[in-house]
Design a protein that fits this description.
The complex is a heterodimer of chains A (about 220) and B (about 450). By secondary structure, chain A is of the alpha/beta class. Chain A folds into two domains: about 120 residues, Response regulator (Rossmann fold, 3-Layer(aba) Sandwich); about 90 residues, Arc Repressor Mutant, subunit A. Helices cover about 40% and strands about 20% of the residues of chain A. The chains are: A alpha/beta (about 220), B alpha+beta (about 450). Chains A and B meet through α1, α4, β5 and α5 of A and α4, α5, α6 and α7 of B.
Chain lengths: ~220, ~450
């Protein structure tokens, strides 16, 4: 899961990015409105965390721009402005959720997970596929009811595939949703991760669709 | 002299002094004219006598008694009529003798009349005041003086008779003027009282500015007052924005601090994060206060209820997306509150947030017009509050709900804003089981 964090306060941005990465998210940080607007409009993200009081371009303007361009990524507004009128304005501009500063990191994580899960069309917290269960709210995987231990990259790949279980996820899209914007991506690194995952959850759970991508399926088991 | 402190007093003093002076002057002037008028009759009789005596003087200054014809009034001695002729040859008198020790004094100030006679005043032997007329007749032996006198009372009696009604009329005139002045003061100073009332309305927030459509003398004052009101409002707004900026400015570093503290091992017992939460609580409190202190004209503002509720419901659905809460909105048509849009958002936002937080499955929002007010009810089907907790819920700074992100501050803020906007708020048990928050707020166009 890849998140765009648009926040001008460097200390906060850095701290929050670190905290989100610790929860296995891939995080790109933009320090101003223009950069944020550009990244959100050109890159593929599962969700954005958007500050409102940004230098250059205001958060609400960035959000309106995205929505006008048809970018429907879930957006969590994270701002010091805690008036209800400001919240109404934020939602009218197309926000999906709103959190005021200061906040608990857990709250941001929970809300982001919920946004991503709902955007993938899952009303309930737990997504299951055969023996595999993904609690999209807690971010945990279980295989046959037992906790599954994954690295951050493995978690990202599997969560993307699980949220779209039984659907082929394009390889390029998978790479985009797994790696941060400035990461050095080896051409076959996704294959390596898929290989490791197959060892952990069983080879048949992840299907390679030649020339297209991968899919998590219960059917082939 | 110390001037009276009241404007009415000053105006009254000045007009009283001028009116009294005018009346006194009028009394004297009219009296004088009247006196001259009544004395003219007496003068004519005396002038006839003087002319006749002058003709009786011969060239040498001797009076020819044969040529004296007594005029009727001069026949009766003791009634103040008399005459005297003085020349180098002798002195002749008739009728009452004018006191020799107090001879007549020609009143030259008045000057000779058309007949050439000089008027004067004197007394008879008996001491009766007389009015005299005198001429100087040139003779060979020098100038002879011919004087005739008549009783002064002939002039003063009608004068006194005329003066009494005259003074009475002047008195009535003075009284009328006094009444007119009083009425004028009441009427003339009325715009001043109206301006005072308008200013009181501004202070009470019933109107935003004093009307500038004033009498010429007050119009500049009204303009200045409005400029002062505007300046005051601008300064308040500036200070409010400053506090808001300060509070908002603190929130980002607080957020950064809280994120850092959340990292492993930095705050093992959570006490530092509790301090951050406390700081945040204080900042929120003061932000709420700053918002509540938003400059006046609250009752002049107009906010249509339906779109405000719609916007807030969209927010609630977003921030409480994982709570499957069904909402029923039943607002009477065209309800508009006499409150600022931001205030309405704050009041209802806090109450709706509270309802969403505690609802099991349902929130109900209803509103209807009730006379000059609009009654709004927000109900949820959650656990509700006990009587004791209801009491506490509205006390500033008290948080009943520790689950959320400091949102427990919402109820007291809502209460403060409702009261600032001239409304009331009450908590109770909802028909659907949970808490019912009943708010009444002045309707726009309700009573003003």
């Amino acid at each position: 899961m890849r998140i765009l964090l648009v926040e001008d306060d460097a200390t906060l941005a850095e701290g929050l990015a670190r905290a989100l990465r610790a929860e296995s998210f891939a995080v790109d940080v933009a320090g101003n409105g223009e950069d944020g607007a550009h990244l959100g409009a050109t890159e593929r993200y599962d969700a954005a965390v958007l500050d409102l009081g940004l230098p250059g371009k205001d958060g609400v303007a960035v959000l309106r721009e995205w929505r006008a361009e048809g970018r429907d990524l879930p957006v969590l507004i994270l701002t010091a402005r805690d008036g209800w009128s400001e919240k109404v304005a934020g939602f009218k501009a197309g926000a999906d959720d709103y959190l005021t500063k200061p906040f608990r990191v857990e709250e941001v994580v929970m809300r982001l997970r919920a946004l991503v899960r709902r955007a993938a069309g899952h009303a309930g917290a737990v997504v299951t596929c055969g023996r595999l269960a993904f609690d999209a709210q807690l971010g945990t995987f279980e295989l046959d009811g037992l906790p599954l231990k994954l690295t951050a990259l493995e978690w990202r790949v599997l969560s993307v595939l699980m949220l779209r279980r039984e659907v082929v996820v394009d390889r390029g899209e998978l790479i985009e949703r797994v790696y941060e914007g400035d990461a050095e991506v080896d051409s076959n690194s996704v294959e390596v991760i898929i290989g490791r995952l197959r060892k952990k959850i069983g080879a048949t759970m992840i299907e390679t669709v030649r020339g297209r991508g991968y899919r998590v399926t219960a059917g082939a088991a | 002299m110390r001037l009276p402190r009241s404007l009415a007093g000053r105006l009254l003093a000045v007009s009283t002094v001028t009116t009294v002076a005018a009346l006194v002057f009028a009394a004297f002037a009219i009296g004088h004219v009247l006196e001259r008028f009544v004395i003219r009759g007496l003068d004519q009789q005396l002038d006839a006598k003087v002319a006749m005596l002058s003709r009786a003087l011969d060239r040498d200054g001797m009076l020819d008694r044969e040529r004296i014809v007594d005029l009727p009034a001069f026949d009766e001695p003791g009634r103040g009529w008399g005459w005297r002729v003085e020349s180098a040859r002798g002195t002749w008198t008739g009728g009452d003798v004018i006191d020799a020790r107090r001879p007549f004094r020609p009143d030259h100030r008045r000057g000779p009349s058309r007949s050439g006679a000089v008027p004067g005043e004197g007394v008879t032997d008996a001491g009766e005041p007389v009015h005299t007329r005198a001429v100087t007749v040139p003779t060979a032996a020098g100038d002879a003086i011919v004087v005739a006198g008549g009783p002064r009372r002939l002039a003063t009696a009608p004068l006194r008779e005329a003066m009494l009604p005259l003074l009475g009329s002047l008195g009535i005139l003075g009284l009328g003027l006094a009444l007119a002045i009083t009425a004028q003061l009441r009427f003339g100073l009325r715009p001043l009282r109206a301006l005072q009332a308008a200013l009181a309305d501004v202070r009470a927030g019933r109107v935003r500015r004093v009307p500038e459509d004033q009498p010429d003398e007050l119009a500049p004052l009204a303009v200045e007052l409005n400029a002062l009101v505007d300046q005051n409002e601008a300064q308040l707004e500036h200070a409010r924005r400053h506090v808001a900026n300060l509070a908002h400015g603190l929130k980002t570093p607080l957020a950064a601090l809280s994120v850092k503290l959340a990292e492993d091992g930095r705050d093992p017992d959570g006490s530092l994060r509790a301090m951050v939460a406390d700081l945040d609580g204080r900042v929120r409190h003061h932000l709420g206060r700053a918002r509540a202190a938003a400059p006046g004209g609250r009752r002049h503002a107009r906010t249509v209820l339906a779109p405000a509720v719609e916007g807030l419901v969209a927010v609630m659905r977003g921030i409480h997306a994982d709570r499957a809460v069904a909402v029923t909105v039943d607002l009477g048509s065209d309800l508009a509150l006499a409150a600022d849009a931001q205030d309405v958002d704050e009041m209802l936002g806090n109450l709706l947030d509270n309802a969403w937080r505690h609802a099991r499955s349902m929130v109900r929002i209803g509103a209807h017009r009730a006379g000059p007010t609009i009654a709004i009810a927000i109900e949820d089907d959650g656990p509700g509050l006990s009587e004791r907790l209801i009491e506490e819920a509205l006390i500033p700074g008290r948080r009943l709900d520790e689950r959320g992100n400091g949102h427990g501050f919402g109820l007291p803020i809502a209460r403060e804003l409702v009261e600032l906007n001239g409304g009331t708020i009450g908590l109770g048990r909802a028909g659907i089981g949970g808490l019912r928050a009943a708010v009444t707020l002045p309707a726009h166009g309700g009573d003003c």
